[in-house]
Amino acid sequence: MEQQWIVDSPDNTAGILLRLARISQGKGQKEVCHGLCVVSYLSKIERGKGNPDTALLGQLFGRLGITYETEKNFLEESREQIRKYFYRNLYELKRKELFEELKKKEERLRYSPLALYWLFISAMEGEGGMELLGSLQESMDRRQKALFFVLKSYENPDVEAKVRYCEAAAELTGDTFVMRQLLYAYFAAGRYNAIHYLENRFVALALEEGNTYALADYYYMNASAYACVNMEEMMVSYYRKAEHLIMNTCWGEEMLPDIYYNIGAVYVELGKYELALSYLNRVTQESFLLWHKKGLAYLGLSQQKELDESLIKMKGFLEKGGNNIQAGEVERLMYQELRMRSEPGYEKSPEYLELLETLLAVLKKERPFGFLYAYRNVARETYVRWRKYRKALEFEEEISLKALNQGAKS
């Protein structure tokens, strides 16, 4: 299936690249094609309507001081490396070395029959090229357009825009790479039910590809969607499937800590604190959120010494950063809420109520639904304690409706 990515680029890709290079140099069509072809034919080439031979293309690029790469051995070697890159991308295998090898050839690949593929790889590696890719959409086949839409979703911060781009990509092609991006977009948008709905389609696709990672990743995402609404049985079932698939594989080191963290986080919300810690303590990479969940577990177990240690760790992440976490308003509020809840008599503090309401408002605005759902019990109990029964009822109705719509019942 991955080999479908590698076909000879159509001549119109070269024509569009020729036009962009000519305009960037401020040269007119007549200046470039004089003595080689008529202006009208050059116009056709630049609009992707002509079918020039490589010799003419080489001459036209030569007028711009650019060498159009046609050396057979170079192209065959590069095509094989590009094929391997997309294969490794599909199966989530290491591809950095391949990228570095291709990058050394950038000057030759940029103006060659493989230019479009190099631009895709460059964009996937965060090296830019999206604007140029946008100019080449007319030269793309369905799979290439799908990949372009996925890359557009990466650079758009709006979660609903991400969903639209990924849905458009999925309509064009059906490989697991594109479908996984759609799952991630649904998860970011809190559309958990959509993730559950895709199970049969995705599993069949992963089995067709023989793609163990994609299958494990689907089970992981599906379990995470259930975890966000504390559906313990479904969560554990799907995390177990993912765990068994990746155990003793090259993917285990990356995925297993996330599985253990998510299971532990749900058990914290369910009040099963000892069980929660048995999973959280298996997470080897420290983070703000890990120590926050541990702190909640220690709070539930009345282990003040361990809770204080968790607060110190959380504060350290806020002050110094770490694990590529950018401490923002949400993290500061989460820390302050847990610190206040660890103090005797916090229930009677109007400052705590104000802080909690501020945190809930920010979570609604800036975080996926699962973050807000994690504070469901705390918010309800706090509102009832302060006899704000209407707020308690409104919050419970709001969050229950969201949970239903986003996958608590699929």
List keywords for this structure.
single chain, 410 residues, mainly alpha, elongated
State the separation between the terminal residues, measured CA to CA: 31 Å
Number of helices: 25
The portion of residues assigned to helices is over 70%
Radius of gyration from the alpha-carbon trace, in angstroms: 27 Å
Write the layout of secondary structure elements.
Elements: H1 11-24, H2 29-33, H3 39-46, H4 54-62, H5 72-90, H6 96-103, H7 106-109, H8 115-124, H9 130-135, H10 142-155, H11 159-172, H12 176-188, H13 192-197, H14 199-209, H15 212-227, H16 232-246, H17 252-269, H18 273-280, H19 288-300, H20 304-320, H21 329-341, H22 350-366, H23 369-373, H24 376-385, H25 389-408
Helix pairs in contact: 1-3, 5-6, 10-11, 10-12, 11-12, 12-15, 14-15, 15-16, 16-17, 17-18, 17-19, 18-19, 19-20, 19-21, 20-21, 21-22, 24-25
Could you please describe the fold and organization of this structure?
The chain has 25 helices and no strands. It has helices at 11-24, 29-33, 39-46, 54-62, 72-90, 96-103, 106-109, 115-124, 130-135, 142-155, 159-172, 176-188, 192-197, 199-209, 212-227, 232-246, 252-269, 273-280, 288-300, 304-320, 329-341, 350-366, 369-373, 376-385, 389-408. Helix 14 (199-209) packs antiparallel against helix 15 (212-227), helix 15 packs antiparallel against helix 16 and helix 20 runs antiparallel to helix 21. The longest helix is centred in the last third of the chain and has 20 residues, at 389-408. The protein is elongated and about 90 Å long. The model is unreliable at 322-326 (pLDDT under 50).
